[in-house]
Every structure is written in structure tokens, then in C-alpha cells.
């Protein structure tokens, strides 16, 4: 706890414990609204996994954990606002409330870190499944490095937060024990906030190379751009949270008044991050609703490389064709391995077959509900 100097305390107004100025129920209401929206998206995600794709993965477990931690954090913050004066000026809070308020603040910071990291890990899990066995080895290494950075910094700052004071209970004891050794919470919080915001930005930016490689209609590109923009809203919330953390620890001693927008930014950041992480998993649920926009999204490209000695030459009967599909329905890979034959003229014929699937009913019921349209291109070189 940042203890104000005596001259600052003497300059404070006379305490008003009976009818103090407050910031109203803004924090509680907005926390409830954003949590409800996040809850809806998590519910739709789980419903989609269990009833449509029939698959439940590690990323779903991590999102559930993130929501549980976020829910717990919102409960703690709302209790602080309603019963411990977190929406009051610090001089209007009875000294007897100090220890209880500090305990809640200590727990809320740990819950915030756990919720945010679970969401990020869920996204990393999704990215790994998205690239599957593709040839983008460089992107896989980028994921490895980003994941290592995230896990390392998470455990470092979680350790610093838990052991901000030795003994640990000194973090909420007021006045602190004489033998307590506490770190300066300001630099730890600011550094942790900056790293968290950097990770949010990094995780939002990582899919861009994948999106740029996709062949899609302009309307679909705009939809993807909208999703990415929503991810940057998480980064913006993190930047706002970091600013108010600076305000609390370096600009004013009226911590309880200025921590209200800081805690609000924390909860919005976690809620919006959960929403962003849930959106890709809702594609099987939303595709039938927006079939005009997403109807051509189910597209596969098969590339067959064959050679012929003359017109009418036969191709090998065994092509070694293999198709793998992720259980979640997010990624589908077609692999073709053919024996290469050369003609006497050295001409190589490459046949590219593109199969597009368009939905013809308002409700998508499975692969048999798609009508294939084949386009074959022949290139000789």
C-alpha cells in the first residue's frame, strides 16, 4: 500500500463517513453488463462445440477457466465498490476498512492475471490448430517464441504479485508489520501492465499473416478485419488500464477514487478478450444464419500434379490422396502425393481442381447439405 505523507493527509478535507461523495453504481453496472455479454458468448461457444461440432478441446477448457476467473474478479471488485468504499475518496473511508479493502485488492489482481493468461493461452491453442501441418514453419516458430514470452512473463509477474510483501499477509495488514519487507508496488504494476498490453497486441496481430494468405471475398475480408479490430479494443483497454495504474501509483494519493476506472478497464479488457476468443468457434453456428456472406467460406483446393507422355495417357491409379480435418471443424487439409511421370517432350501437366461448396438451405446439417461446384484448370509447362 502506498502510504501518503503526513502533510498530504493533513491537507485532506474533513472525512464524511455518513453521506460521502461517490462515483455511483457505474462500476457495478458496467461490470455486470460486460460480464453478461461474455457469458453469452461462452455459452454459445460451448453449445456449438457440444451440439454441432461434437468436439471439446483444450482451448475451450482454457476459455471456461478464463471466464471463471473473470467472474470471480468481477464479484470481488463489485464487493469492494459496494461495501468497502472503492468508489469513494480515500479520506471518506474509515481506517477500519483498510485491511479488508487491501485483501480484496490483492485477490482481484491475481484473478485478473489468471483470467487474462487463460484467454491468451486459449488463443495460442487455436492458432496452433489453425496452421495444422501447413508449410508455414516460420509462423510456427513465431508462435513458439510468442508463447514462451507470454508464459515466462506471466509466471514472473504472478510471483512478484503474490510475494509483493514478505511475509505475504503484510500486503493487506495496516499498518504493516515492523519486520515486513515489501516491494514498491508501482513499478511492478506498471511493468506488468505494459507487458500484458504488449502480449494483447501481439496475440491480436499474429493471425494477420494467415489472413493475408487466405483467398476470400471482400465482404469476408471486412468481417475478418472487424474481428481483428475488436481484438485491438482489448489492447486499447489495456493501455487505459496502464494509464490509470500510473495515476494511482504516481499521480495522486486518492487511490480509491482513481482505481475505479482502473478496475473497470481491467474487467472490460478480460471480458472483451473472452468475446474475441469465442467468435471463431461460433462459425458453425453462425454460418447458416449468414449464408449469403459465409456460404462460400467452405472452400477446398485440391492440387493434382500429373504428367503425361501423350494425349490419352493414363495416370497412376494410386494417388496417395489424404485429407485431415480438425475435430473442431476449424481447419481442413488436403494432401496429395502422386508419382511424377515425364513425357518424351518433357511437358508437365498440372491439374488444379477447386471445389467450392454453397449452402442451399437455411439450416446447415452437415457435409451432405453442401452442393459442390467443380472448376478444373489445366496448365502445361
From TrEMBL:
Keywords: Membrane, Transmembrane, Transmembrane helix. It is found in: Membrane. InterPro entries: Rhodopsin_dom_fungi (IPR049326), SAT4-like (IPR052337). Its main location: membrane. Residues 309-328 have a biased composition (Polar residues). The chain crosses the membrane at residues 27-48, 60-86, 106-130, 142-170, 190-212, 224-246. The keyword Transmembrane helix applies. It is a multi-pass membrane protein. Residues 309-332, 361-381 are annotated as: Disordered. Belongs to the SAT4 family. PANTHER family: INTEGRAL MEMBRANE PROTEIN-RELATED, PTH11-LIKE INTEGRAL MEMBRANE PROTEIN (AFU_ORTHOLOGUE AFUA_5G11245). This is Rhodopsin domain-containing protein. It comes from Trichodelitschia bisporula. The lineage of its organism: Eukaryota, Fungi, Dikarya, Ascomycota, Pezizomycotina.
